[in-house]
Design a protein that fits this description.
The chain has a domain of 131 residues. The protein is 35% helix and 11% strand. The protein contains eight helices and six strands; from the N terminus they run αβαβαβββαβαααα. It has a six-stranded parallel β-sheet, with helices on both faces. It is globular. Bound molecules: zinc ion. Keywords: S-adenosyl-L-methionine, Transferase, tRNA processing. This is tRNA-uridine aminocarboxypropyltransferase. Its EC number is 2.5.1.25.
């Protein structure tokens, strides 16, 4: 890991970063995150320059893609974890959600024959025939027809916003709903000792990547989320990152098991 005081060269902005830039341009007043880090931030990772993580960004090619639909202010929040999904999963798409309009690029993506969209949402809110708990096993390619890649559509929002987004997006109605099962959620919680009842977007994405067989990306995303959280909290307290912390150790372990890229 690099020393804390060296800033990394800027990386190409990813989908969530571009969405954030567009959202800021539309703002009439600056967004003040409650309890967040004040002052200058790196545009690549949103952390203080002294805690910049850009040199660690672990982008990977995956079988699955992720399509994030972000509630209005979500791209502005420095702790938004959809950003971390875009750091890891090369094929991450991000769109701002609005009740009255839908982005034509989103509709084109959902209709793209390369992808099979799955709306990730609790199954109890939809009719049973629409609900899946796992992905269909890949079929043998026949007649030269390529297997569609899974596209996980995640609603990146507070829970009440997510329910509204789900109800008021008729263009999502034709797709299956991938409902993560309670056993899977509790296994995940045990493994990660997650204390909250609410999973963040990066955690949900990691569970989805496990289902699509993108295990390495799933593990990377989990370790990267912990690393980011450690740096974020240390920066908030104006402390340097602790390289001996469990998050930094786990990150080094994860990196040594990654292929060279
Ligand atoms: Zn940075």
């Amino acid at each position: 890991m690099k020393p804390d005081h060296i800033s990394s060269p800027p990386l190409a902005p990813h989908a969530v970063s571009l969405l954030r830039t567009r959202r800021i341009a539309r703002s009439t007043k600056p967004f003040m995150a409650r309890g967040g880090v004040r002052g200058e931030r790196c545009t690549g990772c949103r952390l203080r320059p002294s805690h910049c993580l850009c040199s660690q960004r672990p982008t990977q090619a995956t079988q699955a893609g992720v399509c994030l639909l972000l509630a209005d202010t979500e791209p502005l929040k420095p702790s938004n974890t959809g950003w971390l999904v875009a750091d890891v999963v090369a094929d991450t798409f991000a769109f701002g959600w609005a009740r009255t309009e839908v982005d034509a690029d989103l509709l084109a993506l959902l209709a793209d024959p390369e992808w099979q969209p799955y709306i990730v949402f609790p199954g109890e809110y939809v009719s049973a025939e629409r609900v899946l708990h796992s992905l269909d096993a890949p079929k043998q390619e026949s007649d030269g027809v390529a297997q569609k890649r899974p596209l996980f559509v995640l609603l990146d929002a507070t829970w009440s916003e997510a329910r509204k987004m789900f109800r008021k997006s008729p263009y999502l109605d034709r797709f299956p709903v991938l409902s993560l099962q309670p056993e899977r959620l509790s296994r995940y919680r045990l493994r990660r000792s997650t204390r909250s009842d609410h999973f963040c977007t990066a955690e949900v994405a990691a569970m989805c990547l496990e289902l699509s067989g993108d295990l390495r990306a799933a593990q990377t995303l989990e370790a990267y989320l912990d690393l980011f959280t450690h740096y974020y909290l240390q920066a908030k307290q104006q402390l340097p990152a602790n390289m001996d912390s469990p998050a930094c150790q786990a990150w080094r372990n994860a990196r040594t098991h990654l292929p060279a890229s």
